Amino acid sequence: MAAPEIGILALIEAKPGKGPDLRELLKNARELAAAEEGTVDWYAFKVNDETYGIFDTFDSEDSRIAHLNGEITKALAKVGGELLAREPDIQTIDIVAAK
Questions:
Q1: What is the pLDDT along the chain (99 residues), one digit of tens a residue?
Q2: Cα separation of 34 and 19, whole Å?
Q3: CA 31, CA 35: separation in Å to the nearest integer?
């Protein structure tokens, strides 16, 4: 299988004091990502106490679109007003090299 060539990089900023809640939501989202057939890799990461991110790769553009419209996005939207300082910064990316 060839390495994935497309992905998403999302930065998510929690409201002050809500970082632990966002961290927990992202930890729980792992199961949702694992259930997505077209999601090849999925990582949630912490930048600092209030900034987190998601990096994921996909086997096709259809899989990336399905992920963007999927359960993790819905979960973030559901708690966004309570947890997030602003809308997530979501970038679709092309992968130029991978190991």
A1: 678 899 999 999 999 999 999 999 999 999 999 999 999 999 999 999 999 999 999 999 999 999 999 999 999 999 999 999 999 999 999 999 988
A2: 23
A3: 6
What gap in Å lies between CA 79 and CA 91, rounded to an integer?
21
| Alpha carbons 56 and 50: distance in angstroms, whole number | 20
Q: Where are the domains of the chain?
A: 16-81
Q: Which two tokens stand for residue 36?
A: 């997505």
Check: CATH 3.30.70.100 for 16-81? yes
**Residue of 45, 42, 90 whose CA lies nearest to 63:** 42
